Amino acid sequence: MRFSRLRLLACAAVMMSLSLPALAQRVVEGDLQQQMSPAEFKAAGLEKLTPQELAELNNWLQGKVAALAADAREQAREEGRQEVIVKNHGFFDFGTKEPIKSVLTGEFRGFGKGQRYALANAQEWEQVDDVQVGGVRRQSPEVSIAPGVGGVWYMQIQGVNTRAKVRRVK
Questions:
Q1: Counting Cβ atoms within 10 Å, is residue 115 exposed (0-12), middle (13-18) or buried (19+)?
Q2: CA–CA separation, 13 vs 58, rounded Å?
Q3: pLDDT per residue over 111-121, tens digit each?
């Protein structure tokens, strides 16, 4: 009799673990008897458990739901953090020193102070130094914008040996 109860308890635990992701989406209040209809409770064989066994199963289930909810919150938090980093890359330093790689929209005709450069990734950069390069014509060249010291960013156009100091404006 004791062995069949343990097997029944293990089966109930497996059944509950399969439904935990769905349960983690909502707050679970009360015990299984309150969450399930009497027919569901009986079909799962849970009426055969002693009150202590049912309490242990409820405690285990509550712990699993709480852990899954905490994992889901942490994953959402990290996804939000990554979105902020990507969206604001170039405006602020969020701990990433990776260069921004994109394509310049339209034609590149050289560097000049105050000139704005629109990129295919929807970012817009403005040149802030006096570097000039003329006589260059490139249609939609690849661009790399790398961070320097003290929050400074440098734009490098593929095939052009000069780089310009820029700041993100959009």
A1: middle
A2: 10
A3: 889 989 999 98
